[in-house]
C-alpha cells in the first residue's frame, strides 16, 4: 500500500492564531501570577488598584486580540473559507458555551431594561461588578477555552504566586508585617485585611479556589520533587486556611475534602494520597495552634471557629485517627492482601447521604430554633444556630431583605433582574430602615453577601439559571474527563469550593475572574489535552 503523504500546507490563519494563543497565555500568566501580588498604596485603595489592574490589562489584551482576530478572519476570507471557519466554530460549541452566551444576553437586556442606571455599567464603588465586568468574565471564558494552552511550567508559576500570597497571609497573622501593609492602621484593619488581597473575604475566596489546584497536583504527582513542592504548597495553604479568619472558607474546605474523598476511591494509591493530604491539613492546624501559644503576645485575634480548629483537642484526636488509618492501609496494601479501596465505593455514597441528611437536619434545627418552635432544653443561643438579623456577621438582615425585595419585583424584573450591580440602589428603596438599623447609616449594603441570591436580584431568574448553568456544566465536564486529564479534578474541586464559599460571599474582582479563567482552562484541556495532542 502506498504511504500517504503528510500534509505540509500551512494552516489558514496559522500565524495569526499562534499570536492569539501567545496573547491569551500572557494574559492568563499576568492574571494568575502577577495580579494576586499586585497592590498600590497598601490597603488604602486595594479595591480600586485591583480593578484598575484588571480592566487595564484586560482592555489592552482584548484590543490587541481583536486586531489579530480580524487578521485571522481576513486570511480565511482571502481563501474564501470564511463559511467553513464559522461552521467549525458553531459545531465546536458545547452547552457551557451556550449558557455563557445566554448569560451575556441576559446581562445586556437587564442593563437596557432597568430604571436603576447609577451603577449598572461600571458597578458600585468598591465592587465594580457592573455590565463591563460581566462581559469581561464571559469573554475571558471564551478566549481562554479556545486559545490558552496547557503548560506545566506556567502551572507551577501560578501556584508559586499563590504560595507567596498564602505565606504572607500566615506570617501576618503572627504580627509580622514584612511589606508594612498595615502601617499605623487600626486593629479592625489588622483583623480584616490580609496579605496582598485585602479584605479577608476576598482573600479566602481566592484561597479556596487555588488550594485545590495544589492539592490535586500533589495527589497525582509521580516524581519526588513534585510531591515535596506541592506538599509544601498544600501545608502552607492549610495553615492560611485556619488563620484567614473568614468562616465562609470552612464550608468550602468541607467541599474540598469531600470531593477529594470521593475521587480517591479510584485506587489504593489515590486513597493513600487522600489520607496523606488529610494528615497534612490536620497537622498544619495543630502546628498553627502551637505557634499561637508560642507567639501569644503577637498573634492577631481570630474568630472562635479558627481557634477551635487550631487548638481544640478534637482536631488532635482526629489527626491521630487519620494517621492510624493511614498506617493500617499502607500495611494492608503493601502486604499485597485482597484488600482494595475500590471494593468499598459504597462508603462514599453512604457518606454523601449522611452529609446531605446532616445539612438538612441542621437547616431544620436552625429554622425551628430561630422561630421559637423548640422546647427550652433543645433551644440554643449559639450564633451559628440562631438565625436573626445579626446571623453570620449581619448576613441575616441581608438575606431577609433580599428575599423580600425579590418578592416586590414585577414580572419583568423577576425574569431579568434590576441590573448588574444594582442591588444596593434597588434594595434601599424598600429596606433602608431595616438595613440602617442593623448595619448603621454609614454603611452601604451593595450586595446580598450570597452570590447566588445577589445574582437573582440583579439578573433575575434567567440570569441566575444561566450563570449557575455555566458552573454546573463546567464541573460536570471536568469530572467526565478527569480520568484522562487528572488536573481537571483540581478545577472541578475549585468550582465546588467557589460555589460553597460564595454562598456566604459575593462576586468580586479577584476571585471571579480567576474562576472563569479556570473554567476556560478546563475546556481547553478537554479540547486540546496537555498540549501534545488535540483531542477534540
Number of strands: 2
Question: Strand order within the widest sheet?
Answer: 1-2
Dominant shape: globular
In helices, the fraction of residues equals: 55-70%
C-alpha-based Rg, rounded: 25 Å
What portion of the residues fall into strands of 2 or more residues?
Answer: under 5%
N to C succession of SSEs: HHHHHHHEEHHHHHHHHHHHHH
User: Main β-sheet, in a few words?
Assistant: 2 strands, antiparallel
Structural class of the secondary structure composition?
mainly alpha
Kindly state the mean pLDDT as a whole number? 91
Stretches where pLDDT is under 50 for at least 5 consecutive residues are: 1-6, 532-536
Number of helices: 20
> Roughly how many Å apart are the termini?
29 Å
What descriptors fit this protein?
two-stranded antiparallel ribbon, 20 helices, disordered N terminus, disordered C terminus, mainly alpha, 536 residues, single chain
Compose a concise summary of this entry.
The protein contains 20 helices and two strands. It has 536 residues and is mostly helical.
Can you give a write-up of this model?
By secondary structure, the protein is an all-alpha fold. The protein is built from 20 helices and two strands. The chain has a two-stranded antiparallel ribbon with strand order 1-2. Helix 6 (152-172) packs parallel to helix 9, helix 8 (200-219) runs antiparallel to helix 19 (487-501) and helix 10 (248-263) packs antiparallel against helix 19 (487-501). The protein is globular and about 75 Å long. The protein starts with 13 loop residues before the first helix and ends in an 8-residue tail after the last helix.
